[in-house]
Amino acid sequence: MVRVSIDKQGYTGHILLQPNISLSWRSNKRFIASLGILSMVIASYFTYHGFWVVMPFSGLEILFFAISIYIFFNRNNHREVLTFTADKVVIETGKQTPEKSYEYQRHWSQFHVRGDDKRDIPRLSIKSHGRELELGAFLGYDEKIMLIEAIKNITRSFRQSGAFHKVSEHPGR
Q: Are 44 and 50 contacting, i.e. CB atoms less than 8 angstroms apart?
C-alpha cells in the first residue's frame, strides 16, 4: 500500500509504504480461535466414538497453523515512511514505531529505478555519498509504479520550485 501526503508546494510531505495484509492481527487471532474451536468439536466427536488419536493431532494442527500465521504476520508487518523536507529525505523503517532511520541530504541524493520492464518489478533505491537503500522492496508491480510516479512528481516539483538552489546556496558568502 502506498499513501502519499504531499503539501501544496508539491515537494515536501510523507509517503507511507506497507505491504497489503488481508487481516489485522486481531482478526487473525479470531480466525485461529474459530478454526481451533471447530477442529476441537470435530476431534471430540471422533474421540467419543473411540478414535482418541485424533485429538492430539487436531491440537498439533491448530498449534502449527497459529505459529505459521504468527511468523507470516510478523515478517510482513512493517512500514517504511519517506519524509521529504526542503533539505533532506528521511526514511524510517519499523513495525509499529521507527526502528531504523536513514537520512539523506536532499540536494545530494538521487533516486534510481532499475528493471522497469513489464515482466519484472522495478527496483527503486536512493543513493547518496556511496550509500544506497532500496525502497518498498515488498511492494507489487502496480504499487511500485505508483511510488515511482509519486517520487518523480515530488522531485520535479522540488527542482521547478527553486528550492534546490535555495538550499544549496551558502549563506553569508
A: no
Distance CA 113, CA 121 (A): 10
What is the per-residue burial (b if ≥16 Cβ within 10 Å, else e) of 111-134?
Answer: beeeeeeeeebbebbbebeeeebe
Q: Percent of the chain scored above 70 by pLDDT?
A: 91
Global pTM value: 0.71
Per-residue model confidence as pLDDT tens digits over 110-162: 888 887 666 678 889 999 888 889 998 888 888 888 999 998 888 888 877 76
| Structure-block grid coordinates of residue 3 | 499513501
Of 13, 140, 136, 146, give the one whose Cα is nearest residue 79.
136
Q: Which of 110, 108, 101, 109 is nearest to 80 (CA)?
A: 101
CA 8 vs CA 32, 145, 169: distances in Å: 45, 22, 24
Burial-class residue 160 by CB neighbours within 10 Å (0-12, 13-18, 19+). Answer: exposed
Q: Which element (helix H / strand E) includes 69? A: helix 54-76
Beta pairing, strands 79-84 & 110-114: unpaired
